[in-house]
Amino acid sequence: MPGVPRLASWSTVPWCDGCSRFLNPNTLRTDGTCPQCESLVADPTKARDDTPVKAPWHFKLLVLVTVVYLGWRLIQMIGWLIT
Fold it and tell me: Which residues pair with 16 in a beta bridge?
């Protein structure tokens, strides 16, 4: 459509002009075509970024605090059972 700004070249979200919608990269076929209208949407030769995502620091902190809290509650329960 004329006058509509296109996505930047660094964008990783595939857009199908035939269907006028964004597609999830996992919903594309292996050859890079749209599953509905079969038009080429993405370059199939580009390697997908399958590197694992690291957990954020605040999630690790939450897990640590939870383990410490449950450990302390276990110590309290053992003390309660002994007395």
Answer: 21
Q: Which amino acid is at 80?
A: W
Domain boundaries, the chain: 11-44, 55-83
pLDDT for 4-55, tens place per residue?
A: 445 444 456 778 888 888 887 777 888 888 888 888 887 766 655 667 778 9
Tokens of 1: 């459509």
| pTM of the model as a whole | 0.43
- Are 27 and 33 within 8 A, CB to CB? no
- Asked if residue 41 lies in contact with residue 32, where contact means CB atoms within 8 angstroms, the answer is yes
